[in-house]
Amino acid sequence: MTIQYLPPKKISSFYPPQRTLMGPGPSEIAPRVLAAMSLPCIGYLDPVFVDMMDELKMLLRYAFQTDNALTFPASGPGSVGMEMCFVNMVNPGDKVIVCRNGVFGGRMIENVTRCGGTPVVVEDTWGEPVDPQKLEDALKQNPDTKVVAFVHAETSTGCMSDAKTLVEIAHRYGALTIVDAVTQLGGSPLYVDEWDIDAIYSGSQKCLSCTPGLSPVSYNQRVVDLVKQRRTPSQSWFMDLDLVLGYWGSTNRTYHHTAPINGLFALHESLVLLREEGLENAWARHTRHYLALKAGLEAMGLTYLVKEEYRLPQLNAVRVPEGVDEAKVRKTLLSEFNLEIGAGLGPLAGKIWRFGLMGYSAKSENVMLCLSALGSVLMDMGYPIKVGVAEAAAHQSYAEQHAQAAKKIKGS
Ligand SMILES: *Cc1c(COP(=O)(O)O)cnc(C)c1O
Predict the structure, then answer these.
(1) Which of 96, 110, 222, 344 could bridge 352 with an S-S bond, Cβ 3.0-4.6 Å?
(2) DSSP label at residue 393
(3) Ligand 1 mean position, distance from CA 310 (Å)
(4) In this model, does residue 278 exceed pLDDT 80?
(5) pLDDT (tens digit, 9 = 90+) per residue, 137-193?
(6) Aminotransferase class V domain: which residues (predicted)?
(7) % helix / strand / coil in the chain, to the nearest 5?
(8) Domains of the chain
(9) SS3 of 326, please?
(10) Report field, pTM of the whole predicted structure over 0.90
């Protein structure tokens, strides 16, 4: 006899509601990507699949703008990509400088400690970029630093740091670099080779708008050499680059773990979409919709957390107006408008909202819905705004941008 272990409620198939996703990730998934995911599963060593893996690596090199042979999607969310960098590059006793200006820098520190390394933390205020001078000072004081790690696009604050400059400084002091590009990839300019980044990881569910659970990574020759020189194997069996390479390397593919086959179909399709659109066009699209959203939010009287020059177009952190119940606003947006936006984290909890414009979610329908819904909810709660001003400002921004683009084409 079997036991049911079931509550009285009948459990039937699960169908999620259709939501508009404008939080810090996941972003909406393009229909073509969803369709690719539902195709029949095949074996992870099927020659047809192996050919697709090669294409995936090529497409990722394009997205990362790198020639690195060791470029592939790690099986797991962005956090796995992060951990893969640290467990392979940090040996017990190694000194690692971590620049922290938000949530994800904090996680990097945790990774260094768990690898037995010694973290040296360069702190910056949440909402401000990493200060290159502070990094240089820390390197001067710690010339034995092995690795410098920082987040390029801090999703918790919507702030972008100057990756090129930070990498340059780290290299001047002989340190390798680990760069978090989870929110950057596909959304804003990133040039792995030109900027000489050593190790970089990203995520599938932000500006690539693919299914969550995959982490594109890329490592240059310096990292490969470092891994080869290791005297003790990495503490992680699953993330050991030496072992993973047996499957993702170019020859004699052997079983390491079962690849997330259908997820990789989806990633392949999302990268084909990116290639069709063109990387620079994708970056420009994120900026276009950010400018319209910004015009609308500011017309409503809202202000940004981050200074304009450091702002991420794909993640808009906006201050919650005095006296507004921020959680109630988010709850109402979800229940009344099927719209998800993000809350503040850590010291910014209760103080900001985070509006994501990532990948497939970066489109004018979403910008207009968001402004309209937010205006409606805020007015309903007694906040003094005129409904419609935000939408008008956003339309105006789109119109100005179109006029500017037309002028540019005419002039060239
Ligand atoms: C989302 C995010 C991560 C973590 O990715 P998961 O897929 O949630 O594990 C890491 N770093 C940054 C900057 C992120 O935005």
Answers:
(1) 344
(2) H
(3) 19
(4) yes
(5) 999 999 999 999 999 999 999 999 999 999 999 999 999 999 999 999 999 999 999
(6) 84-344
(7) 45, 15, 40
(8) 31-275 (3.40.640.10), 278-411 (3.90.1150.10)
(9) helix
(10) yes
